[in-house]
């Protein structure tokens, strides 16, 4: 069938069936995940709880440092209420890596953060740390967080 | 072409080109990731540094609690040497979730751990925590860790 019109038809069917230009598609999805991460960070800076929560899947799990894991969107919303209520809370985040599966359904982002909060005696405390987030493309085509975790770079006071 | 031998040929080519029974394939790969996780945990229990290191990609990043991130396999090996040298160190890990992308190239595992170590005054300290690992299938067909992080459930002493 080599060189025949039939091989062209089969070739075309392959492209339709398997997704045309898959690397280009994954580059587009990588940009979409990067944009979702940036929008989530903007929502945190704006202390906008409902915008923050729009990025979490219903079954998401949050794994905060120094607390047991937080399971499901409702519990994560309570956690964010608690975080946003911390006096002088600010979080500056820097995305360092984003990678999307070839099937464009699963991705992760990782980066570093500096969080700032008011400690004892109204003293501002800055904490550097790092984070890892797993994203899953939902049925509606949007990327949402399914697992998110972070930890501090700083040892506890008794180990410094 | 419906019902003709040609449509059977095209159908067969589709199955070969796009991967036959993709869900079954992903189930097999999910088992492979689960097995890799179990083998890595066994290597930790056996304190077998070279077996542990076989599960890390060259470009892997480890994000330990209370330390800056550890970049690359050589640096991760130094970190593991340090961990395995902690007096009375033991780590019991329980896998809670594994998910593989439809393209079988990217996966994550998450779960909980209890680490045990000798603290001050030869007192055994047990620390519960949780972990999240991103795996990537390598060119040789093996799943390897590309990002791994964990954090403790326990607040630092001054916040208890």
What report would you give on this structure?
With 160 residues, the first copy, chain A, is an alpha+beta fold. Chain A has a single domain (21-152), classed as Nuclear Transport Factor 2, Chain: A. The first copy, chain A, is built from four helices and six strands; from the N terminus they run αααββαββββ. Chain A has helices at 5-18, 22-45, 49-53, 73-84, and strands spanning 56-63, 70-71, 90-100, 106-118, 124-137, 143-152. Chain A has a six-stranded mixed sheet with strand order 2-1-6-5-4-3. The longest helix of chain A is centred in the first third of the chain and has 24 residues, at 22-45. The first copy, chain A, starts with a helix and ends in an 8-residue tail after the last strand.
Search tags:
6 strands; Nuclear Transport Factor 2, Chain: A; homodimer; 160 residues; 36% strand; six-stranded mixed sheet; alpha+beta; elongated
In short:
The structure is a homodimer of 160-residue chains. Chain A has 160 residues and is an alpha+beta fold. Chain A has helices spanning 5-18, 22-45, 49-53, 73-84, and strands spanning 56-63, 70-71, 90-100, 106-118, 124-137, 143-152.
- Overall pLDDT level of chain A: 89
Task: Identify the strand order in the major beta sheet of chain A.
Answer: 2-1-6-5-4-3
Separation of the first and last Cα atoms of chain A: 72 Å
Query: What is the count of DSSP helices of chain A, taking H or I runs of 4+ residues?
Result: 4
Shape descriptor of chain A = elongated
Supply the CATH architecture of chain A: Roll
Q: What is the class of chain A in the CATH system? A: Alpha Beta
How many domains in all of chain A?
1
Structural Rg of chain A = 21 Å
Quote the beta fraction of chain A. 35-45%
Regions of chain A with pLDDT < 50 over 5+ consecutive residues? none
């Amino acid at each position: 069938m080599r060189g025949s019109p039939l091989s062209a038809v089969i070739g075309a069917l392959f492209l339709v069936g398997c997704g045309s230009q898959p690397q280009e598609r994954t580059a587009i999805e990588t940009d979409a995940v990067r944009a979702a991460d940036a929008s989530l960070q903007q929502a945190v800076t704006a202390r906008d709880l409902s915008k923050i929560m729009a990025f979490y899947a219903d079954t998401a799990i949050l794994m905060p440092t120094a607390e047991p894991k937080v399971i499901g969107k409702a519990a994560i919303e309570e956690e964010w209420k608690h975080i946003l209520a911390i006096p002088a809370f600010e979080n500056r985040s820097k995305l360092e890596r984003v990678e999307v599966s070839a099937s464009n359904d699963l991705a992760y982002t990782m980066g570093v953060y500096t969080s700032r909060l008011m400690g004892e005696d109204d003293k501002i405390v800055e904490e550097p740390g790092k984070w890892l987030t797993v994203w899953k493309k939902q049925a509606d085509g949007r990327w949402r967080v399914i697992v998110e975790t972070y930890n501090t770079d700083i040892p506890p006071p008794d180990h410094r």
